Amino acid sequence: MNEVYITKSSVYLPNEPINNDEMENYLGLVNGKPSKAKALILRNNGITTRYYALDKNGKSTHTNAEITANAVEQLFDDQFTRDDLQLISCGTTSADQIQPSHSSMVHGLLNNGKSIEINTSTGLCNAGMNAFNYAFLSVKAGTVDNAVCVGSERFSAWMTADKFNHEVENLKQLEEKPIVAFKREFLRWMLSDGAGAFLLQNKPRENSVNLRVEFIDFYSYAHEIETCMYSGAEKQEDGTLKSWADYPSDEWLKESIFALKQDTRLLDEFILKKGAQSLRASFDKHNIKPEDMDHVLAHISSNYFKVGLKEEFAAVGLDFPWEKWYYNLSEVGNIGAGSIFIATSELMNSGKLKKGEKVLLCVPESGRFAYSCALLTVC
User: Fold this and answer.
1) How many whole angstroms separate alpha carbon 153 and alpha carbon 96?
2) How confident is the chain (379 residues) per 10-residue block, as mean pLDDT?
3) In this structure, are residues 9 and 345 in contact, taking their beta carbons and an 8 Å threshold?
4) Are residues 51 and 128 in the same domain?
């Protein structure tokens, strides 16, 4: 088995940062009125700026595939050209189409003039880590010498007012039942667009910061807990999901079948607890200690969870001092499958890393409560 190194990383964030007061200029007003839920949600999530692949008319400026390809393009240089690329592995929640695969569309945009292996991971926040794992294992096993993995999202196109107006017209519940407004709008004020990419190689790059990948672990709790975050389906009273394909087409818009929804009750009950449980299992599996970690990068959807996550980790014997944590949620927003790539790239290019330091990555996914973690060594 080969050693595997992140030898270069990149970030692509579309357009200019958008502050909280500007959001509805891009996403639009639902039913022509400012949101009642927006201020509360923003106060709790602590996000101050984010990025949208939209102009002020709500028109798309980039596809997800274009955002992803722009991140990949930044990895090419004199030492690694587009013709050197052997595998691209992409993870996203928000592909531009159901078929063909997201990686197929990205490869088409790269125009590298040769056939390569592609892989697409779907799902929610762990889609990026699954794409990372596929690339990692491919280089480790020696089936390829290099691979590019990317996590990306283009959520803004899902959050424009026109996606919400129809249900307002039909149900009139945003005024009659404010809790419906909160549940429908919760994610509207959380999500952002962008992509982060890693170049993985079986040898470190000279005169550069390299991160050796020690392991990537995954844990699912779907056998214990019902679905929390979903799209393309509707949750039934017994907790099961009814697929979009089982609804008449005239119900798709009326019932907001394709809207991204989240059961906030389940989120609050399980997201931190199961995250701590999974990380404890990983530390025991690899016989590592919390004091060995120098940097802790945890993907969170909201700053509301920041203190609680630290406390839950500490409760299972993983007490990381605040100075070791690295967060960028307030500045870039929640970019789902791309978030951990972007945070890692920022840290990797910050000039703060020293040889021998350990970098821990932690990613939760509330879909049906799945978690991943990875350990990297600076070299």
Assistant:
1) 10
2) 98 98 94 86 94 96 98 97 96 97 97 89 97 98 98 96 64 47 74 98 97 98 97 95 96 86 91 98 98 98 94 98 97 98 98 97 97 98
3) yes
4) yes
CA 158 – CA 14 distance, rounded (Å): 16
As given in the structure block, the two tokens for residue 189 are 């004020």
Neighbours of 231 (CB within 10 A): 18
**CA within 13 Å, CB half, 64:** 28
Q: How many domains does the chain have?
A: 2
Amino acid in the structure at residue 98:
I
The whole domain housing 72 covers 5-209
**What is the spatial distance between Cα 2 and Cα 222, in angstroms, rounded to a whole number?**
33
| Residue 190 and residue 232 in one domain | no
Whether residue 229 sits in one domain with residue 127: no
CA 70 – CA 188 distance, rounded (Å): 25
How many Cβ atoms are within 10 Å of 179's Cβ, its own excluded? Answer: 10
Domain holding 287: CATH number? 3.40.47.10
At residue 184, the pLDDT reads 63
The two tokens of residue 378 are 């600076």
223 and 191 share one domain: no
231 in the same domain as 117: no
Cβ atoms < 10 Å from Cβ of 182: 16
239 φ/ψ sector (left φ>0, alpha ψ -120 to 50, else beta): left
How far apart CA 337 and CA 240 sit, in angstroms, is 24
Please state the pTM of the whole predicted model: 0.95
The token pair at 55 is: 């102009």
Task: Report the alpha-carbon distance of residue 271 to residue 225 in Å, rounded.
Answer: 11
Residue 269: C-alpha distances to residues 272, 273, 307 (Å): 8, 8, 15
Q: Which of 155, 189, 209 is at the close of a domain?
A: 209
Report whether 150 contacts 89 (CB < 8 A): yes
Residues 81 and 36 in one domain: yes
HSE at residue 310, side-chain half, CA atoms within 13 A, is 14
